[in-house]
Write a structure and sequence with these properties.
alpha/beta; seven-stranded mixed beta sheet; six-stranded parallel beta sheet; 18 strands
């Protein structure tokens, strides 16, 4: 038996419960979690913005140690330190054959599986976004397991599984920030902090952080922001003022709200690029008129999982960590136990802090 945070139904509070995990079957791996990040996507699952089968054990940003492997698993062995990949690519669907593995049509098929049972009544449990990292241990498909590169602290490595891959990829793969460009990052949570660090790594000369909370300025500047703007109806104008009335070359939106997406777009120069990382609800409608689309020549694009290929990007990120260019610990503003996740969700809704990290 292991302890886990269970979502019994959409809109219901999380329950800390004991669950029974099976031994790993063919092509599966059992992992003892060292840490799991509390991501906004987990919150989106609890409130129905994103949907997966329930009851489920949430958590998708995790790292830990292999306990056992099933038949046919050869790339990791018991005792190995690993990172969980919540969106493994199948390699055969249309987008995978195009090399766009982050859009894999089959990436979340595992979320419909029954992977464990409640100890109390034997009821079925699904693995949230494939990996069920809000638990002391989990059993996952081998395709969801990536060896941890050497020299990376296991606990902080959990952040590589989502926040850092997303923020780094938004800058380097989606927006393709070039040295000397200017960047605005909307939302200074875990992903936003990773995006700020990644913009600094890319060589951006001016990096403007935007958030509703004045208290996050110190966090943002430590991550690489050169300027800080408290969000208001004048945000786009303030950013243009900071950039010689031109606007930034690139804006990265990490919030998922229509007004923020629109403001990010307006904050870029003529011909600028806006990348949307935040996950918004269907009710968040963003509108443009045809003339402004033509006149401004700006690009607006979605960004899924940082447009990243984890197998290729993790070694690159690990080198940045080892070289001191990427500080994983700086993303974490709170280290909690399993029963601290609901409070971490409340802080997220209130716009407080960066990444909360569940440490086992």
């Amino acid at each position: 038996m292991v302890r886990a945070a269970v979502l019994p139904a959409v809109g219901a509070p999380l329950e800390i419960a004991e669950i029974d995990l099976p031994d790993p079957g063919p092509g599966q791996v059992r992992i003892r979690l060292a840490a799991a990040g509390v991501c906004h996507s987990d919150l989106s699952l609890t409130n129905g913005t994103m949907r997966v089968p329930v009851p489920a054990v949430l958590g998708h940003e995790g790292a830990g140690t292999v306990v056992a492997v099933g038949k046919g698993v050869t790339h990791v062995s018991p005792g190995a330190s690993v990172i969980l990949n919540w969106a493994p690519s199948c390699g055969t669907c249309h987008t995978c054959t195009l090399g766009e593995v982050w859009l894999c049509a089959n990436a979340l098929n595992g979320a419909a599986d029954v992977y464990a049972h409640r100890t109390a009544d034997g009821s079925d449990l699904h693995p949230g976004l494939n990996v069920a990292a809000f638990a002391e241990e989990t059993v996952v498909s081998a395709s969801c397991v990536l060896p941890l590169p050497e020299g990376i602290p296991l606990t902080d490595a959990a952040l590589l599984g989502c926040a850092v891959l997303t923020g780094y990829g938004a800058v380097h793969h989606s927006a393709r920030v070039r040295e000397g460009e200017t960047v605005a990052v909307f939302g200074v949570g875990g992903v936003g902090l990773a995006t700020l660090q990644s913009a600094r790594i890319a060589g951006a000369t001016k990096i403007v952080a935007v958030d509703v909370s004045p208290e996050k300025e110190e966090l943002a500047r430590a991550a690489g922001a050169t300027d800080y703007v408290v969000a208001s109806e004048n945000t786009a104008r303030e950013i243009r003022t900071l950039t010689g009335k031109q606007g930034v070359d690139v804006a990265v939106e990490c919030v998922g709200r229509a007004v923020t997406i629109r403001t990010a777009w307006e904050s870029t120069r003529r011909g600028g690029r806006t990348t949307v990382v935040g996950i918004g609800g269907k009710d968040q409608q963003v509108t443009f008129n045809a003339l402004e689309l033509f006149h401004w020549g700006r690009t607006l694009s979605g960004c899924v999982y940082g447009n990243s290929d984890p197998a290729k990007d993790l070694p690159v990120l690990a080198e940045h960590v080892r070289a001191g260019r990427l500080d994983l610990g700086a993303l974490v503003t709170e280290r909690i136990a399993l029963d601290g996740i609901p409070a971490a969700f409340e802080n997220m809704v209130a716009g407080k802090g960066g990444r909360a990290l569940v440490v086992f």
